[in-house]
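Q: Can I see a sequence and its folded structure?
A: Here is a first one.
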Amino acid sequence: LVAAQLLEGHGQATVRIANTRLGELGTAAGQLVAYPYGCVEQTTSRLLALLVLREQPGFLRGAVTNQPQLEAMIRSGLTHLLSMQNREGGLGYWPGSHAPTLWGSAYGSLALTLARREGLTIDEPAYERLLGFLFGQLPGTSQVTEPHAVEERCLALYALAYADRPQASYHDVLLARMPDLSTQARAWLALAVATSADPSNLAVEILTTKVPLQADSESWFGNEASDTAIRLLAWLRVRPDDPAVEVLVAELLRARQNAHWMSTQGNAWALLALS
């Protein structure tokens, strides 16, 4: 990538060259690290950024200055995330919250699974309880009527598949409810299907379905940028050489404002997808 920036008042250009699109993500990563709140959403988003850039801390643009600091921030984030776990095994929105949220629990589990895959030590009993909570929320999926509740179950299925606990029978339940699924929910379901086995035609069929969206099936979580990023993640998992990948990359990069995606989830999902 070559980016030229005009030097103010000099009429000269400086050219920066990088061999990865990660070079475009420093501002977004810095935003995630600097977020001031400790809710489950921001804690997870910050952790995802730190884990993705663990081997490339230079992209954090000064938010992290050395590897020991980065590792300490990751350990602290993992501890803080599990401090939101309650007796049911799920994660509340804040430490001390009594009621777990399915969406926050599924999102948080993605960071824990990624940390585990990176070889980091996590609290295994707490992790198992969290996955058990996600599984325990799936019965009755066919009767769920609220759009946000349908959507968060698609994320839960992806989180379980990413943790090597695929639930294929529930994939079928949600496939039968395609009109009820937002674009983002369809991408999460495609990721769940593709992560459960070798990339399949079924995942592609979900991503390319012509089944129209219901009027009230807009995404309840994230924003337009995160929607694009999650679809990009799904295509990369299923068919990384498909022309849709470059289309979505271009769409995602165009969606930036001031070099980032203007929200916690927009930045986090974009960082995951583009990395």
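Q: Show me another, different protein.
A: A second, unrelated one:
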Amino acid sequence: MIVIKYGGNALPSDTSTDPVLEAIADAFLDGEQIVLVHGGGPQIDAALSEKGLGKEKIAGYRITSEQVFSVVQSVLSGQVLRAIVNYLIGSDVNAVGLSASDGGLIRAKKFKPVVDGKAVDVGLVGEVADVNPMILETLITEGYLPVISPVAVDENGIGYNVNADLVAAAIGGALRADSVIFLTDVAGIYRNWPDQSSLISEITIDELKEIAPSFSEGMIPKVAAAIKAIDSGAFAVRITDGTDLGCVLDALDDRGGTLVSA
């Protein structure tokens, strides 16, 4: 069982051909059980820019108003999700598209980042409160490949944009996945960001926790997601470059990138 997070930065701009999705389709058709969680940051940025929205920020966090969330949901659970599912179906994969809250999969709660010692309200941005993988277990057993967009609702039915890395981590943990593969736009975890020569090829979760405070910028969410996935039940995490087909094929064959083990 593999949970794959396909980052928005790794998604091609032209979906007429997608070698990465083809590789995932081939692995599935060869008998691998797969759940695919996708992001969509660049696609959201483009859609918001077209409408002149999403410019308000606090400490780097975009304020997600109801108007902004409407665009985010349309892009993630509409444009990107449908493009991936349609592509996989065209590759003979029995794919099913879901938002993260469908079937009770993930219950969200409001995320309030701490800035200068105080929790701040950044709007309709959520985090994972609870996970129930039953719908995924049913779909997997019946031979489907679930594709999940990172939009979830709270107990009152209010929708939130949730970090896709953390959605994949939570799902991977709940399913006790053999591996959670994060396909991103870097080769793996760099000990000294952005020094590519400092790539960590293999590390245990305990070792990663010890050095986690030393990471900066883009490495911080990747490390946090890796730790969350294993702490919640996944057996291993692999972070690799989803823009390089060779790296993707290696990851599907349990090689390359950064391996984080329990």
